[in-house]
Amino acid sequence: MKTIKYNGQEVEAYSLIMTKANALDILNGKKVIETRKLSSKYEKMFTNFKQLEENERLRKEGRENECQPILRTDIETIHFYSTGAPWFLDVAIDEIGIGEVTEEGIKFMQEEFDFHDFDEQLEEFKKNPPEEIPLFYYLHISEVINHEGLK
Predict the structure, then answer these.
(1) Cα(88)–Cα(119) distance, rounded to whole angstroms?
(2) How does pLDDT run across 31-79, given as a tens digit for each residue?
(3) Given this model, what pLDDT does residue 91 score?
(4) What does the alpha-carbon distance between residue 34 and residue 25 come to, in Å, rounded to a whole number?
(5) What angle is formed at CA 7 by the lines to CA 143 and CA 17, rounded to 5 degrees?
(6) How many angstroms separate the CA atoms of 133 and 38, rounded?
(7) What are the beta bridge partners of residue 13?
(8) H or E element: which one contains 26?
(9) Is pLDDT of 131 > 80?
(10) What is the dihedral of CA 7, 8, 9, 12, to 10 degrees?
(11) What DSSP line would sit under 78-123, residue for residue?
(12) Rounded distance between C-alpha atoms, residue 141 and residue 91, angstroms
């Protein structure tokens, strides 16, 4: 975690490594989505485990309709950086979601966010059985807060 200034206040921001090409695309308005592979590292970072436990309790009681989303909604800012390079990009996010590399999932990302990073891989993933469909976290960037060293 890193502290950054946002809306006149010091706020905690998750620090995530990013390529300079992606940072420039975000800075120049070409991209509003950053993705991360579904992994235990990001699961721990992006999951609201209290809500997950509450959902389990509700399911056991037969009250599934009361379950709430388990992805965190309290993360507002991300500090992107590169190891060994003198640049950073601080952004505000308004959504953490889970996407899937399927025709429907890719179409959703294209239509909602004009996101095309997985278009080429879709054909090869279509051959996978359903249990092997790649999932990913996506961060929807709503605003660039600050940056340095990006040109």
Answers:
(1) 28
(2) 999 999 999 999 999 999 999 999 999 999 999 999 999 999 889 999 9
(3) 97
(4) 10
(5) 50
(6) 11
(7) 2
(8) helix 20-27
(9) no
(10) 50
(11) EEEE-TTSS-EEEEEEEEEEEEESSHHHHHHHHHHH---TTTTTHH
(12) 7
Q: Tokens 């592979």: give the residue.
A: 37
Amino acid at 89: L
User: DSSP code of 132?
Assistant: G
Instruction: Give all strands of the β-sheet with 135-148 in edge-to-edge order.
Output: 2-6, 9-17, 77-81, 88-100, 135-148, 33-37
Is residue 134 a contact partner of residue 125, using CB atoms and an 8 Å limit?
A: yes
Site of tokens 């500090």: 79
User: Quick one: tokens of 40?
Assistant: 């235990």
Q: Which two tokens stand for residue 47?
A: 């999951």
Amino acid 61 reads E
Q: Check: CB of residue 39 under 8 Å from CB of residue 134.
A: no
Q: Which amino acid is at 25?
A: D
Average pLDDT for the chain: 91
